[in-house]
Amino acid sequence: MSNSYDTQKFLCDSTVGRLCSYMRMTGFDTAMHPSHVPSDVLKSALDEERTILTRNSITAGMKLARDVVLLTEDDPWDQLRRVISSRHLTIETERILSRCLEDNEVLQPVPKDDVKGKVWPFVWATQNDFTTCPKCGRIFWPATHVEAMLSKLKSLGIVV
User: Span 9-95: which CATH code?
Assistant: First the structure.
């Protein structure tokens, strides 16, 4: 399967919660299902046309579960590497941190003047680029954590 941020959607069940955040961090549309009940996870995945990411072999083995990545790795970074590899995905650097890690919404650019008084004065004075989540209203800006995440992804061989 080729890389497509626009058509590839994922659903993590409760067995891979941290992976959900990492998938969102890399920019992929990734929903989190709060249940570990296979039939509930499968129903959501089918309704939303999402690839299931799970460690639950029962979910993966269900007859209607056509699009599943069964993960055996314990470490969420290894799980991310496995999903990227098995789905033949390429991480686009400009997509990293383009989604809200909390609710999966695509972040929207916001003018600097619109965040004055909503972020720390030092942040407002030293940063120029801001985005916001249209759902939860959180405000984001590129700081040292962006470089740290890129460095981690490069060290794992996920980003070149």
Answer: 3.40.50
